[in-house]
Amino acid sequence: MFGRLKPRSVKLKQASGRINRMSGRINHTSGRINHTSGKINHTSGRINRTSGRINHASGRINCTSGKINHASGRLNCMSGRINCTSGRINCTSGKINRTSGRINRTSGRLNHASGKINHTSGKINYASGKLNHASGRINRMSGKINRMSGRINCTSGRLNHASGRINRMSGRINCTSGRLNCMSGRLNHASGKLNHTSVLKRSVPQEKFVPEKFVHQRGLSPFHIQLKKFMACFNIYFVSKQNEILAIDHEPHSTLHVQSEPLLNRNHGRFFSLSGRLDLFNAELFQQRCFEAVNNGDTVLIFQCSELYMIDSLGAFACLTILNAAQKRGGTIIFLNIQTKVRNILHVFGILEQFQYASSLEEALKKCSVNNAPISIICPVCSKKMKISKPGYFRCPSCKKLLSLDNNKEIVILS
Questions:
Q1: Based on C-alpha coordinates, what's the Rg of the chain?
Q2: Where are the domains of the chain?
């Protein structure tokens, strides 16, 4: 039994040793804790001294805080005054805002009115542009009117010059009137021989009154001689249509003399020798005589113009009309030895290229032989075959295109 208890005692001793060792450790730890507590107490003293210092500083801070509170009260009082002033300012600002609103409404109305004014200004500027455009047209028209005025002034000068000529002619007519009064007695004396004159006129129906060099050959009466002298005062002559055409004019050097004869070795041609001037006084009569020749079959007309020194617009138009009539019958007109002045006038009228020109009769006859042979060509547009009388401008009868044919037989499409 004691054998069994002995080990327990040993264990208790061992446990007691352990407890002692643990108690030593606890005591050691307690010493350390006491040492640490001392340090803490020392530190607490320092903290207390620091706390006193802090309390002293806190008192000073409280004093300063009181001063700050006193200043804060003053500031609050000042702030109240400022708030009162701010209220007044806000009240004034409200009034200013109301006034600003009214000003803004007035400004909006002004802006609207300004917009209308700008719109009206745009319309005015547009109308001004139209006026400027119209002014430009008026200026151009004014320039044209000024040029026309210059032409009118030039024409007026020519009319004044013609008026002077008419006045001189009037003086001549007055002088002739005196002569007529002197001749009236002679005419009364010759009135008994009118029946004889009528018989002579019926016997030669193709002849009319002629100049004096033909009178004695025809055996006319003295009445015809006096009547011839009267008509010679006005440069009025009538000669047989088969030999010579003399147009009527009131100026001594403006009468057109035309000598016509058929072309040699040619059945459908006629040669005209022109001398003088071709103008409005004789263009119609000259055109009628040429139409008679064309209607009789003379489609090729050669005009000898070496003594033709003047042609006007009506004379040029008469030549162009005769050319159209001759071309319809397959003929043409050739000017022989035309003067430079007449050529320039035809160039101004734009019809210079419509006619043909030659310097000799042989050259003119060669052109006639060439013109009689029609030229066969093919339209480059529609490939239609056609024949034309001479090089120049023409229109295709099929496609209606305007073509041009030069002397080298080259075709150019114009439109």
A1: 68
A2: 254-373, 375-415
231, 209 Cβ separation under 8 angstroms: yes
pLDDT (tens digit, 9 = 90+) per residue, 242-276? Answer: 334 444 444 444 478 888 888 866 667 889 999 99
Q: Which helix or strand (DSSP H or E) is residue 275 part of?
A: strand 269-278
pLDDT in tens, 320-344: 999 999 888 878 899 999 999 999 9
**Nearest-angstrom CA–CA distance, 157 and 160:** 5
- 313-328 and 283-295 helices, crossing angle to 10°: 10
Among 1.10.1410.10, 3.40.50.720, 3.30.2090.10, 3.30.750.24, name the CATH number for the domain at 254-373.
3.30.750.24
Dihedral sign for Cα atoms in the order 360, 365, 366, 368: positive
In Å, how far are 160, 161, 164, 171, 313 from 157, measured between CA atoms?
5, 6, 10, 21, 19
Residue with tokens 């006129």: 201
217 has a pLDDT exceeding 80: no
CB hemisphere CA count around 366 (13 angstroms):
7
